[in-house]
Amino acid sequence: MKVAVTGAYGLLGSDVVKVLQEQKHEVIPFPPHADLDLAEFGKVREFVFKYQPEVIVHLAAIPNPDVVEKDPVLGWRNNFNSTYNLVRVLHETGGVMCYGSTDSVFSGHDAKGPYNEFSIKHPLNIYGQTKYASEQIIEQKMQKYFILRLPFLFGLGGRSETNKLLNLIKKAKAGEKTVLQSDSWSSVCAAWDVGWAISKIISTSNWGIYHLASEPAVSRAGMMRCFLNLIGFDTNLVEETNYVDARKLAKRAHYSVMTSVLLESTFGFSMPSWQIGMQKCIEELKKQGVV
Q1: Which residues contact 60 (CB under 8 A, 6 or more apart)?
Q2: Helix, strand or coil, per DSSP, at residue 102
Q3: Among residues 97, 115, 83, which one has the least CA distance to residue 207?
Q4: Which domain covers residue 17, as residue numbers?
Q5: CB of 201 within 8 A of CB of 210?
Q6: Which of 42, 162, 195, 206 is the S-S candidate for 15 at Cβ 3.0 to 4.6 Å?
Q7: pLDDT in tens, 48-96
Q8: How far is residue 147's CA from residue 56's CA, in Å, rounded to a whole number?
Q9: How far is CA 211 from the centre of its chain?
Q10: How many domains is the chain built from?
Q11: pLDDT tens digit string along 171-225?
C-alpha cells in the first residue's frame, strides 16, 4: 500500500514511517513544514497528485497548547486549515484519511471514568478546539477515514531538544531536577506502539473513530519517575508539583484518561501497557550507549 505521512520527522511520525516500512508499505514522507506548508492548498494538491497515495496518515500539527493559545490564528492555520486541505484533495483522489487526533477534545475535568469514543467532546483550550474541528470536517466531508485519538506520547524520535525522555536523561546526568505534575492523570502510549496500531488499522476498511490508549493511567511525574528508576537514576530527580501550581498559558486537563470500547472488537488487538513500550525505548537507548 502506498502511504503518505505528514509530520514524518516528528516524535510520532518518525516511528510511524519506520513501522510502515517494516510492514512493506511504500512510504512517502511529506516534506517538513519549511518546504511544504500544508495550509497552502495548491502545494498540497500538487504533492498528493504527484505521488497518488492510497492513504494519508496526517500527524502534522502544532502540538504545544501554549503556542496555539498565544497565537490562535497560527494554530487554526496549521492544525485545521492543513487538515481541511488534505480532506479536499482526498475527496478528489478517493484516498483514505488516517488522522491523529488527541485526548484534548475532552474537557479533562470530569473524573467519572475513562473517556471512550462516544464520550461528550468539550475542548479545554484552543488547541483542543482546532483538533475537534478537524475531526468534524473529516466526518462531514469524507466516507473513508480513521480518526485516532491519541494520549500523551513518548519515544525517541523527533527533535532531541524537545524529546522529553532524552531531556530527562540529559538533566539527570547533570544532577538537575525536572518539575512535573503529580495530580493530573492521563493515558500514555509509546510512539512505536501507536505506529504499529496504525499499520494494522489502515490495512482495513473499518472506517470510524478509535481511541489508542495504553494502561494503566499515570501522572507525568509518576511516568518519568518510573523511567528514571528503570535506567538506574535517582527518582527524586523528578520533583512533583500539583495542577494548580503548574501554571501554563493554555488550560491543562486534570483528568484525560481514555479507553476504547471499539478497538479490540473491531481490529482484534488492544494497546500494550506503556511500561512495555518504555522498556523497548530503554533497550534502544542501551544499544545507542545513551544509558
Answers
A1: 6, 7, 10, 13, 30, 33, 38, 78, 82
A2: strand
A3: 97
A4: 2-287
A5: yes
A6: 195
A7: 999 999 999 999 999 999 999 999 999 999 999 999 999 999 999 999 9
A8: 12
A9: 11
A10: 1
A11: 999 999 999 999 899 999 999 999 999 999 999 999 999 999 999 999 999 999 9
